[in-house]
Amino acid sequence: MRTNMKNTLIAHFLLLALLAPGCQSVSEKAASIQPLAENTPVPPYQDLLSRARNQSSVATESFFINNWAELEDAAKGLEQTSRLMSKSADMPENKKESILAVSSDLNREAAKLKEACKTKNEVEVNTQLQKITLKIRELRIN
Q1: For 33-66, what is each residue's pLDDT tens digit?
Q2: DSSP string covering 16-49, please?
Q3: How far is it, in rounded angstroms, from Cα 55 to Cα 78?
Q4: Would you tell me which CATH number, out of the four given (3.90.110.10, 1.10.10.10, 1.20.120.290, 1.10.260.40), belongs to the domain 33-138?
Q5: Count of alpha carbons within 13 angstroms of residue 56, beta-carbon side
Q6: According to the model, what pLDDT value does residue 133 have?
Q7: What is the pLDDT averaged over residues 95-121?
Q8: pTM of the prediction?
């Protein structure tokens, strides 16, 4: 009986250890759609790129469950993140021109996504989410 209880405790501990990181990443993604304070220094480029990826993921998940308010917040966050990318001091010099162009495109797509959210235009939201995903992919520096 003691062995069964010990095994049960170990199994519960392992399950908790496996589930905890998933919960943390969800809260991190949710926090990523909150706007950054306008008077704070511009974060490093890689941080902004990760933020954009998280915002895009939150937007996609929000669309899937019809959470229009969160989807619009994610779109607003993407607008801000794309603006900040163009101001990042540590973007690679050899990719600067491309990053500036693509981050400007991303800003336009995020604005279109925000407008599509307001009218709950599912077809347009889907189109914009696809474009945003591709733009974020283009912003990788690898």
Answers
A1: 788 888 889 999 999 999 999 999 999 999 999 9
A2: HHHHHHHHHHHHHHHHHTSPPPTTSPPPPHHHHH
A3: 6
A4: 1.20.120.290
A5: 24
A6: 98
A7: 97
A8: 0.78
